[in-house]
Fold this sequence. Notes:
Distance between the termini of chain A: 40 Å
Mean pLDDT of chain C: 87
Structural class of chain C: mainly alpha
Strand order of the largest sheet of chain C: 1-2
Shape of chain C: flat
Largest sheet of chain A: 6 strands, mixed
Radius of gyration of chain A: 25 Å
Helix content of chain C: 55-70%
Number of domains of chain C: 2
Helix content of chain A: 25-40%
Number of helices of chain A: 24
Oligomer: heterotrimer
Order of helices and strands of chain C: HHHHHEEHHHHH
Number of strands of chain C: 2
Amino acid sequence: MKDTTEREPIIEFRDFGFQYNAQAEPTLKGIDLQIRKGEKVLIAGPSGCGKSTLAHCINGLIPFAYRGTITGSVTVRGRETQDLSIFALSRTVGTVLQDSDGQFIGLTVAEDIAFALENDCVQEPELHDRVLRAAGAVGIDSHLLNAPDQLSGGQKQRVAMAGVMVDDVEVFLFDEPLANLDPATGKSAMELIDEIHDRTGAAVIIIEHRLEDVLHRSMDRIVLMNEGRIIADTDPDTLLSGELLRSHGIREPLYVTALKYAGVRVTPELKPSSIRSLRLGPEEKQKVLDWYRRTPPSPAPPPRPVLLKAEDVTFSYDGRRETLSHISLEIFRGESLAIVGTNGAGKSTFSKVVCGFEKPQSGTLCFTGLDWPSLSLKERADHVGYVMQNPNQMISKPMIFDEVAMGLRNRNVPEEEIRPRVEQALKTCGLWPFRNWPVSALSFGQKKRVTIASILVLEPEIIILDEPTAGQDYRHYTEIMEFLRELNARGVTVVMITHDMHLMLEYADRSVVFSQGRVIADDSSAAILTDPDLVRRASLKETSLYGLALLCGIDEPKEFVRRFIDFEREAYRS
Amino acid sequence: MKNSPVKTIVSIGIGAALFFVLGRFVAIPSPVPNTSICIQYGLLAFMAVLFGPLAGALIGLIGHFLIDLSWGYGIWWSWVICSGIFGLLMGFAGKKIRLEDGTFGGKEIAIFNIAQVIAHLICWVVVAPILDIVMYAEPANKVFLQGLVGGVSNIVTTAIVGTLLCIAYAASKPKKGSLKEEK
Amino acid sequence: MRNIFNYVDRPSPIHRLTGATKLVCLLLWSFAAMSTYDTRLLVFLTLLSLVLFALSRIRFSDVSFLVSFMAAFMVLNNVLIFVFSPQHGVTLYGSSHPLLSLGGQYVITREQLFYHLNLVLKYFATIPIVLLFVCTTNPSEFAASLNRIGIKYTVAYSVALALRYIPDIQKNYHEISQAQQARGIEMSRKQNLVKRLKSAAAILIPLILSSMDRIEVVSNAMELRGFGKGKKRTWYMGRPFRPADILAMVFCALLLAAAIALNVLNGGRFWNPFR
C-alpha cells in the first residue's frame, strides 16, 4: 500500500460540530479528520451516525442548502467552506449521490454528462469533446443518446460518475454507491472507482455500510462513525481485527466472522481486509477445518405441499420482447423463498403477474383450492399480498390505525370486526405501542412494518415483498428480517424479491434465479452462491465463505456455508 | 425555511410533470358519458399553496401546454393561460396558509376552499370565455356554459382532492410534541 | 415512453431547422391563424401547412392516432356551437340566407355554414403545424429553444425537468395504483363520484408525497453541479441559427403581418362575402 500520510490534506475538520436548525441535538460532535490528496477513505457507520451529514459538510450542501449551527472548522484546500459557495466547492469535490435516478437530470446520457459544463458556459466544440472524453472514461460512450429509462442502475451510476468527472475535481465523494446495485454490478462499480482513482489521482471518499463489498478493492483508511462522533480512523486490516465494527452496528465480512467462530485470533498480520489478501497459516486453517467438522450438519427442510404453481407463463409489456418467457415455478406452503436476479430479469414482473396486476399472454397460474384465473385483482389480494419497496409509495392515510384498516374498510368489513383485526396485525408487527401515532412520526423501518401490517390484516396465505431491506443498515436489516422470520414461523408463506446475497443466504429456504425472463436455477441459497458459473450468469457474487472454504481445503464448500448460517442463527438467538 | 431558487425551479418541473401525468393518463369516469374529470387542478392548487404564485402559474402553464401538445389538437391558448392564472391566484392565497410548517386545520381548509372557488370562477367563468370570444370568436352562450360546467367540476375535484392532499402533506410533516408509547 | 410527444427521428429540411426557429414559427403561425377569420388567408395557410407536412417526411401513419383524436374534438366543438348558437353566423356577418329550417331557432343559414367552414379551416391551418412541431423537434432541444427566444434559462430548464420526469412519474403512478387497487381502491363507475375522487386521492397522496422527496434530491443534485451559478448557460443540444432559420422566421413574421393587415383592410376579423 502506498504511504499517503506525507501528502498535504485537501479536507480538514478540526473539532467540528454541526446541529440542524430543526433538531434539538448536534448531529456531529468533535470531528477531527483529514483527507489527503489521492487517498481512498471509507466512511462507515450505522444509519443516523452522521455520515451523510459529514458528506454534506464536505460538498457544501451544509451550510448552503441545509441550515444549522457550525462549531469548529472545516476547510477545503485551506479555506473555510462557509466562506466559499456550493459552486466553488463543486469544482473541487464531485459528489455522486445515492439515488442515481434523482441525480440523472438530463433527458439523455450526453446531456446529463454535459450538465455541469453547460452551467459553466463551456462553448462548442469543447463541450462535445469533454462530454465524449468523460463518457469514454466510464465506458458509457455507446449510450450517449439513451434516455434514463433505457439504462440499468449500474449504467446510470456510470453516467453520474462521468457527470462529475467532466470537471477535473480533486475529490470524489460517493454516497452509498452500492445501495441500488446487484452484487455483480456493485463489484464492477468498485473496480471502476478504483480505476478512476488510479487514473486521475483524485482522492476518493466512499460513504457505505456494506464493508465487505467496498473492500473488494483496497482502501487506505476506514473512518468508523457512530452517534455523531468518529470512533476509529485506521487502516482496514487493523479495524477488521478488532471488535469495534460489531459493537457499532456494522457487519464485518462473513469470512472474518467465520474465522472468529472457529477460534482464530484475527490480527492485522493475517491481512483480513479482503478474502484475496487473507493469509492463513496451517494452524489457522486447521482451526477452521476443526470447526467445520464439529459443527452439526443442518437438517433437511421438511417436505411442504404446493400452494401456488405457475406453468409455462409468458408475458410481454410491448408484445415484442418477452419479459417473462415460459416460467414454470412452484411456491410451497409455509416456505420462505427468495427471487433473485438483475434489474430487468423479470422477477418483479413475475410477482405482478402472480398478484394479477398484469395478465400473462400464455401459461397458467394455479392456487391450491381456488379458481385463480377467475378472481379479480382485489380478490387475489385476499390470498397473495404485495408489499412495495418504498413504504412512502403505499401509505395514504395520516394515522397508523386508518392505514392498516384501509383494505378491510374497502372490503366493507363491519367496523366492529375491523378493530380487533387491525389491533392483532399491529401487535404482530410490533406496532402496538404506536397505535395512536401519526405515520409521520415513524422511522423508515417502522413505516415498512405499517405497510406489512396493512397487507397482513387481509390475512393472505402468501406475502410478496419487493426488496424488503433496501436502504437499511445492519441493525434494521436484522430487525425486519427477524420479524419476517417470525411471520413465516406462524405459517405465512414469505416470498422476497431481492438482490441482497446476505438476505437470500440467511433468510430464504430456497432461491429462484431469474435471468432475462427465464428461471435459470432453483435451489438452496447456499448451493447457488457457491456455484461460480451460476453466480456469473445471475449477476451475483460468490459468497466470501466459499473463498474461505477453498482456502482451508474444505471439499464441500456448500455444506460449510450451510453450517455457518445455522451456527450464526443460533448465535443470534441466544 | 425559505425555498432556494433552484428548489422552486425543480418544484415547477416536477409539478408540471405531475400535472401532465394526471391530466393526460388519469381518467376518472364522470357521470357524463365520454368525459372524464380533471383531477390535476387539485394537485395544482396544492403545489401553488406550497411553492407560491410563480411556481403555481408556471406549473399550470407548462403542464397544460404539454398536455395540449401531446394530444395534438393544437394548443388551446385561452385555457392554457387560465390554468396558469389559477395557479397564480392559488399561490397568492397560499401566503395566508403556512402549509410548509404542517399547519392545515379548519381555518386553513376554509381559506383554501374559498380561494379555490373564487379562483376557479374567475378563470373558467370569466377569463376563459372572454379569451375564447376574443381569440377564437366563439359564441358567447356556448363558451360561458362550457366554462360554467368546467369550473363547477374543477371546484368539486379541487375541494376533495386538493383538500385531502393538503391535509396529507401537513400530516406528513413531523411535529414536535409529546408522543408516548402505549402498553 | 420517451416518445410521448411523438418525436419522429427522420432527417428532413424541417428537422434541420433549430428548435428555437420552429418554436418561433409555431407561435407566429398560430397567432396569425388565430387572429384572422379571412377565409382566403386560412385556405392559403392550410395548403401551405400541408406542403410543409409533406416536406418534413412525416408519414400519415406517424400521426394517425393524433389526427383521429383531433377530428373528434373538432366535430364535438362544431356541434356544440351550433346547438348553442345556431344564429352566430347571422350576427357576425349581418345578413341571413336561410337554407333549411329544423324548427325553432335552428335554421341553417349560409352565414352559419360559412362561419363553421372558417372554424374548421382554422383547425386545418394550425393543427398540421402543431403536429409538425411535435414530430420534428427533439424534446431535448426544447428547453434550449425557450432560452434562445428570451425566456430565463432557469425557467426554461423547468420545462426540461418536466419532460425528464414525466416517464418516471407515470411509472410510479402505475405501480402505486396497482398496489392500492389490490387493497380494494376502486375508481370505476360502480362508485359514486365523491367516493371515486377519494379513491383517486388514495393513489395521489403517496405519489405526490414521494415526489416531494424527489424535489429535494433533484435540487441538491443540480446545485452540486453548479446550476444557477451564472446569468447564462450553454446548451449541449443548442444549435446556431443558419440562413434557413432566419428565412423561416421572417416568412412566418410576414404571415402574421398579413393577418393583421387583412384585419385592418376587412374592417374586422371577418372577411364577409355576403356584403
